[in-house]
Amino acid sequence: MEPGNNTRILEFILLGLSEEEVQPLIFGLFLSMYLITVFGNLLIILAISSDSHLHTPMYFFLSNLSFVDICFTSTTIPKMLWNIQSKSKGITYGGCMTQMYFYIMFAGLDDILLSVMAYDRYVAICHPLLYTVIISPRLCGLLVLISWVLVALYSLLHSLMVLRLSFCPLVQIPHFFCELSQLVQLASSDNFLNNIVMYFAAVLMGVGPFAGILYSYSKIVSCICKITSAQGKYKAFSTCVSHLSVVFLFYFTALGVFLSSGTTYTSHSSTITSVMYTVVTPMLNPFIYSLRNRDIKEGLKRLYWMPSTKDQLC
After folding, report:
1. Which residues of 20-31 are buried (b: 16+ CB within 10 A; e: fewer)?
2. Alpha helices by DSSP H, the chain
3. Which residue(s) pair with 172 in the sheet?
4. Using the 8-state DSSP alphabet, how is residue 6 labeled?
5. Could you read off the pLDDT of 175-195 as tens digits, one per residue?
6. In what order do the strands lie in the sheet with 11-14?
7. Which end of the chain is more exposed for a tag (fewer CB within 10 A), N or C?
8. DSSP letters along 231-281, please?
9. Is 190 left (phi over 0), alpha (psi -120 to 50) or beta?
């Protein structure tokens, strides 16, 4: 089949989590996790935007991360829930390509934003007197803008590489969403170039930001060790705990997805690790930041009491 004949493919079949007897349980579980993810991250965004005490670079990046997590989860879960409800397993060719594009983009944004947040913590702890000069509002906006542009181009590259591939008329994807490596492996045309680009880009996007995080925290640890008082060390380290927890969770599950993508495509382990990566991690991020961060907890309290305060003033 020539690449130009891809338009004849009406839909792909998504086989992940397709056991009929547990469909109601899966629907309820994933709907609950999706609502918790959206509601939790939305609360973080509202708390930061409504509280002037949280209008700092650190929480600006956190609000962007929460927004990206909402979008990231929304690229896969609603379609899966719709398929379960309608007892259908199909997704159109155009829908599959669109889902893959946004999945790659928002996953990449998560990756880069975590690296940017690590740099923010490095400047705050190692150069506190120059923090407001270095991490200016202009730089914050520029870093976020560059992140969006770079990741959009990165995702576009992968999407264009997949569009050149040919597929059989009936393609069954052993996932609950259109995952890049699965699509490349299921192509009926030569996918050697796609594999090269895919793994090279994955290493570049994974190793680059992660190396930045490691460098930032190596400097942070070195700086904390120079602090004489135990209270000072604890205060400095406590500002990084939430971010470190999210970094560990993100890269641990991302590594699982990357390693499982190299195994046989019928493996259930790939689906399970993808669930952890696409659903569980974005759901836990708000809990990690709200439970471990005093400023966020205070911001959420002020957000909760704000309506009653306005009523009293009226």
Report:
1. eeeeeebbeebb
2. 23-50, 57-74, 77-85, 93-126, 131-134, 137-163, 180-185, 192-225, 230-260, 268-275, 281-292, 294-313
3. 13
4. G
5. 889 989 889 988 888 889 999
6. 90-92, 11-14, 172-173
7. C
8. HHHHHHHHHHHHHHHHHHHHHHHHHHHHHHTTS-TT-HHHHHHHHIIIIIH
9. beta
pTM: 0.88
d(CA 8, CA 167): 10
Dihedral of the CA atoms 139, 142, 148, 152 (nearest 10)?
Answer: -130
Q: In the structure encoding, which two tokens stand for residue 20, read together?
A: 């009929």
Residue 290 backbone phi and psi in degrees, to 5: -75, -30
The encoded tokens of residue 134 equal 């270095």
Give the torsion through C-alpha atoms of 216, 273, 150, 6, to 10 deg.
Answer: 170
Q: Are 177 and 79 a contacting pair, CB within 8 Å?
A: yes
Query: What are the backbone dihedrals phi and psi of residue 172, each rounded to the nearest 5 degrees, phi first?
Result: -105, 120
Q: Which of 158, 168, 160, 159 is nearest to 5 (CA)?
A: 168
- Encode pLDDT of 74-121 as tens digits: 999 999 999 888 888 889 999 999 999 999 999 999 999 999 999 999
Q: CA dist 195 to 15, 61, 109, 223, 271, Å?
A: 23, 33, 22, 42, 20
The backbone region for 191, taken as left when phi is positive above 0, alpha when psi lies in -120 to 50, beta otherwise, is: alpha
> What tokens appear for 120 in the block?
């923010």
Q: Tell me the three state secondary structure of residue 181.
A: helix
